[in-house]
Amino acid sequence: MTSISEELAEQIRAIREDVVMKTLAVTLVAGAVLLLGNMVRNVYLGNSLSIVHPVLYLTLYAVFLLRRRIGAERIAWLIVILLYLAATVGLFVYGLAGNSAAVYMAFCFVSTTFFGVRGGGAAAALSVGSYALVGILHIAGLINLSLDLPTFLQNPYSWIAAVLTIGSMSWLVLSQVGSLNNRHLKLLAEQHHLARHDPLTGLMNRVALESILEHAIAEAAREDLSVAVFLLDLDRFKNINDSLGHSAGDDLLIQVAGRLRGCVRESDIVARLSGDEFVVVLPHLASPDVTAVAGKLAAALSAPYMIADRELRMTPSIGIGICPRDAGDVETLIKYADTAMYAAKANGGARFCYFSPEMNQEATDRLLIELRLREGMEQGLLTMHYQPKIDMTGRLTGLEALIRWEGEGGISMPPAQFIAIAEESGLIDEIGDWVIATVCRQLRTWLDDGIRPPRVAINLSTRQLRQHNLAMGVARRLIEAAVAPDLLEFEITETAAMENADTAERRLGELSAMGVTLSIDDFGTGYSSLLHLRSLPLDALKIDHTFVRDIASDANDLAIARGTIALAHSLGLRVVAEGVETLEQWQLLRQYGCDEVQGFLIARPAPAEALADILVAGKVAVPA
Ligand code: C2E
Ligand code: MG
Ligand code: MG
User: Fold this and answer.
1) Less CB within 10 Å around the terminal CB: N or C of the chain?
2) Residue 416 Cα, ligand 3 centroid: separation in angstroms?
3) pLDDT of the residue at 596
4) What is d(CA 423, CA 436) in angstroms, rounded to the nearest whole number?
């Protein structure tokens, strides 16, 4: 902000300098013509040569020569003073009303050019004042003036002088003032716009938003009204950039900006903070209930978009902060709206949330957890547990690697929870790599101990799927531990596979090409399209435990489980049921052709050492 306004000031100074120099040059030319004319007239009339004109002219010329040293601002003042002196001396000494009038006019014009309308006004007042003073002195008999208009009018020199002075000065002033103003204004407008607007969408940027919001808050406080700040973030926007390219992403942002503007009144504020973060401000609210507006914004952004000949769907997460209820200053208000937006995202996105003070606590808690998690990873507090998977005969078909975190001071948190936090903070990249390395090392240990381990499944999070070097990383860990890729399996949730559609397809293709097995986790909880699933190199599909839980009591869940089994088989996939806890569930699953099961009924997740017996036996007693 500062640098832009300084730059602007510098440019304006340069324009002024330029105008002053041109004015000085033109004044010199006009002055030279007048001087010559005057000298010719004096010689012609046989008068002694007047000294006033040459002195004035030489002074002006000296100023011209010294212009770099003096600086434009001072030159401007000098010209104005010289013109005034010339006109006044002319009036007093010669009494040539016409000449003086011409020079006074020039004086007024030049003053206007340099010092604006006020400068011109002051110059005019001075000129008229001088005339009035001379008039009064003349009437009082204190000075003697040769106020003979007829002589003036008959004198061609007076005409030439007047026309030249007025003409050149008018031209100068009109052109320079015009161009000065135009260039000034254009520059100002451009710079102002650039400094305050986002070039992509044309919406205000953060700088503009903050200053306008500050105004709005002050105004609302005076009138006892509320201000609502909506912070909108597009859910999974990164996928668009990743899969369709940045120009598609830009296109989407432009459309979003247009829809937001269309949703609110002219007097409301719409801004883009960064990336896919937008802000809408409603400045004059009688009531802090803006649910209707939030709904309208959400609906507008959720309607399908046409991007690069494709129909896309996008949903926003919206956080709402209200002034003065939540906060009374710009920074806190935006921060709170952001906190509320995160809460909306944490609840699955595609929704809006009002800020509440408890969220603040949650946000600090999350930060703390993130910090502890990082420490925990460095201090070796993360461990892996393994849960067996068996087929319907009891044969051990695989293990699922599940991360555990024994936090300090007995804080232990379920992985679903801390993985989500790690995912948000980006820590998942390191944790994910640690998991892969640990599992590979564990496989090596088993092999070294003469145990033939089954395939171990590792859960991959959404963010890991986006890593360009995922397959390379996996290969490195496998090589380090000297473990064959067919001992490794990756589980990707249905949502992760769908969210990244194209990227996921590429990553999974790379992994599959390496000889690693892939399966879809938590099937039934997302909205995957079969067509898409079919295009992925999958080996198995895991029915989510929420469906397994109630298959014995809920006919719908049973129907879903049956349908899923049939569907998976038709796609050539194995079916694994997770979360099997009861005999009834086991029997139903077996009856409907489920291939494998995993759950507390068979075995709980346990540290590697506790699994030795099962691994050696290679089977588990089938529930009777
Ligand atoms: P998931 O991949 O669906 O893992 C299965 C979860 O079900 C595990 O929870 C497991 O302990 C639990 N489970 C197994 N049998 C039963 C049962 O009979 N009944 C019930 N109620 N639950 C059972 P856990 O270990 O708490 O993990 C939760 C989720 O956290 C996992 O779901 C997975 O999405 C994620 N996760 C765990 N470890 C990792 C990891 O290393 N990396 C990543 N990215 N995610 C992981
Ligand atoms: Mg899993
Ligand atoms: Mg699962």
Assistant:
1) C
2) 10
3) 97
4) 16
**Helical spans, DSSP H, in 582-623:** 583-591, 612-617
Tokens of residue 370, six digits: 């993130």
Q: How far is the CA of 551 from the centre of ligand 2 (A)?
A: 20
Determine if ligand 1 sits within 6 Å of the CB of residue 600. yes
Across the strands, what pairs with 230?
280, 320
Encode pLDDT of 193-225 as tens digits: 777 889 999 999 998 899 899 999 999 999 999
For the stretch 110-124, pLDDT in tens is 787 777 777 878 888
**Mutation test of ligand 1: which of 402, 404, 428, 431 has the most ligand atoms closer than 8 Å to its C-beta?**
402
Q: Whole-model pTM above 0.70?
A: no
CATH 1.10.760.10 fits 383-617, yes or no: no
Partnered with residue 270 across adjacent β-strands are 280
Give yes or no on whether 206-355 and 383-617 have one common fold: no
Specify the length of the chain in residues.
624
Whole-number pLDDT of residue 569: 93
Q: Is the CB of 491 under 6 A from ligand 1?
A: yes
Q: Which residue, judged by its Cα, is nearest atom 3 of ligand 1?
A: 522
Neighbours of ion ligand 2 (CB under 5 A): 459, 491, 521
Report how far residue 542's alpha carbon sits from residue 574's, in angstroms, rounded to the nearest whole number: 8
Ligand 1 pocket, residue 599 CB under 6 Å: yes
Please give the CATH architecture assigned to the domain spanning 206-355. Answer: 2-Layer Sandwich (3.30)
* Lowest model confidence (mean pLDDT) among 236-240, 490-494, 540-544: 236-240
Q: In the chain, what are the domain boundaries?
A: 6-194, 206-355, 383-617
Ramachandran sector of residue 610 (left: φ over 0; alpha: ψ -120 to 50; beta: rest): alpha
581 Cβ below 6 A of ligand 1: yes
